Amino acid sequence: MTEPAIVAVDVTRTYDLDGVFVSALRGVSLTVSATDYVAIVGTSGSGKSTLMHLLGALDRPSSGTLRIGGRDVATLGPAEMALLRNETIGFVFQSFHLLARTTARDNVALPLVYRGVGRRERRARAAEMLERVGLGHRLDHRPNQMSGGEQQRVAIARALVTGPSVLLADEPTGNLDSTTGEQVLGLLETLNADGVAVVLVTHDREVAGRAHRQIVMRDGLIVS
Amino acid sequence: MRVAEAWRVAIDALRANRLRSILTMLGVVIGVGAVVALVAIGTGTKRQIEQQVEGLGSNLLIVVPGRLDPGAAPTASTLTMDDVDAVIRVVGDRSRVAVTISSGETVRAGSREAYASMQGVLETTPDVFVRRLDRGSYLTRTDVTTGRRVAVLGAGTAKALFGDRDPIGRQITIGGVRFRVIGTFEELGQSLGVDRDSEVHVPVTAAQRLLGTQRIDGLAIRAPDRDRIDALGSAVVAALVKRHPDTDFSAVTQEQILGVLGDILGVLTGVLAAIAGISLLVGGVGVSNIMLVSVRERTKEIGLRKAVGARPRDIGVQFLLEAVLLTTIGGVLGMALGISAALLVDRLTPVPAAVTWWSLALAFGVSAAVGIIFGVIPAQRAGRLDPVVALRTE
Asked: CATH for A6-222?
């Protein structure tokens, strides 16, 4: 078996808030394999968002070892972290984070911009990806012309367009009604079956229950 | 990220905030426009004066009492016609010497009157300076020696007094004394807003009698050739100092006058450009300010871009290009504004304006530089934003 997508060993993260040190993570170890479907659950303040940022290479641990895609993030500068995110991680956010004045197709193509892919190829790959999430008929729509479920599917297409090994979804159904939330989860599960690791951050037990395994966090530690 | 892509993103961002982009540009537009227009006015004025000084004729020496230092008080003239005769003897050719005594006078013809500069002169004036007659003839040597009351009118004065009628042979009065018009000059136009066509040439002797004086204000000599100007000037000054041991005299050439005027106008143009440059600077600060606001407003967008793989440099370049785009578009519009303003001033007012290439190049270069200088801080700030913090911003 190949190397796990993400390996965290005894990772901590401490924030310095104007001289007050706040420990958000207090020693977390976790492995995400290439085919994993993990749900991270916990109340707000439990450290699950912080863990999510670390797993997504948006942030670096204060101590401990974190390897993403086989690379130790402690050795990487901001530009290398950006490249790592671009190549390895796909993000799906609760509030979609789509560029408002940009069409679905160009939103999806955005990560490829930073990979230096030409415009024509970007647009072709973005269209293909939108087709895959069932939005082939929405290529030139702007976010405000689409429903919440459609916007989240655009965001998933954007996360997938670079061919990442891990999809990190932060409350992906949090802003959706149950029917569309169900559709989005179904899509994530299909993708997982196709070989992308999915890490879901949620406080919804029902959503978490569908994952292959659950990681419960409390006070900066994994409790089960 | 490819450069073409960065440009596209920058243009999109400016389009999204069209009004704000235009208002931000306005500062640069006005600054660049002011630089171009004011430098054009300074340059135009300088050129016009140079042309006029050169247009007086070549190889001229102007002799005046006193020192020709900037800041020196003007010296009352003690020169008389006897001195002029002495100078003519030094020069050896009466036709190369011109004198003047001038006074502002009200000139009347019938019920019409006009204010004009009365110039008491020798018959040699058209030989020494370049002056062309429109009608009639100029003064003769006999007119000068006998103090005959005859006058040659500038084009403006002739028009004011006689309209379209032929003034030759008609009577005018200067300071209540009757003169007969024997000629009129061709039109000269204006210089620095001063009408050069409102003048009356009369024999120097008649002018002295009218003004009740023996003095003349200054004299001019046309040297036979360029090489002899300096020697001739020294000889004339020496002859005059000998006759007036208490007075200094200066003999200056056109080049010297041009040099002094050029220096003064150069400084003036520089000062104008500097003042305009300040407004450009203020425009640059405006750009910086708006870019900072823009970075803050688009924090979420920056966070998202970083999350999907934008490096700090990619974000920095995007915002820097935006600032440069703002100022260079503003710069181009400003050049158009400056050129239009200069052309309007040139056409509609007596102030001449000449747009120079160097001022355009300078203005454009400075506006691009302003974009870079004032764009760097916001761009760095954007590039360094922590993606976690940026994504959390709502």
From this structure: 3.40.50.300
